[in-house]
Fold:
Amino acid sequence: MPEPVDPERLAQLPLDKLVACHECDLLMHRPALAHDEKAICPRCGYELFSHRHNVVNRSLALVLAALLLYIPANFLPIMQLDLLGQASQDTVWSGVLGLYNTGMPEIAVVVFLCSMAIPLLKLMCQLLVLLTIRLNMGRSYGLLLYRIYHHLRDWGMLEVYLMGVLVAMVKLADLAQISLGLGLACFVGLLLVQVWLEVVMSPHQIWVALSGEDTRAGD
Ligand SMILES: [Zn+2]
Structure:
């Protein structure tokens, strides 16, 4: 656990030896972490940063898994609906087209951006950032892409989309016969892989590796 800084000694300390808590702004001495250790704020308990083992390779494996799941998640049927003898299979993409064709182009664009385009852009940014670190080339572009990724994070809303699907299924369960599709399994898999990726891809280590201060991030 890092030690809080004595305010009287603050002026003598170099800035790169200090770290501030994102949650409660407590200023602390930056601790040196070993593998799989994490620094916790002593005041509010927020995880300041952690040093995870083999971050780049593990994150790359997860990004590739997510990209593989992306296509079936969006283009295989999420569910099949049987209503009054009529069966329809719905995918995320057919949902976007359906909205567009029924006179709601603005909503179609928002759904397309939040559930398809931005999640894909986020994954591509993560992939390229990790490759620049792994191959040790073009880190300035990696830095730019990682900044873009942090801006995009707020706009990819797969979780919201999944909630929408679940609510629709509960509401429609009494009216129609619903069978779940392979697309839904891929969609849930994609969400889980992305959550796992958020945990593994420690931002602190990625920023440090991109700025070239530490060559051990690939360890
Ligand atoms: Zn704190």
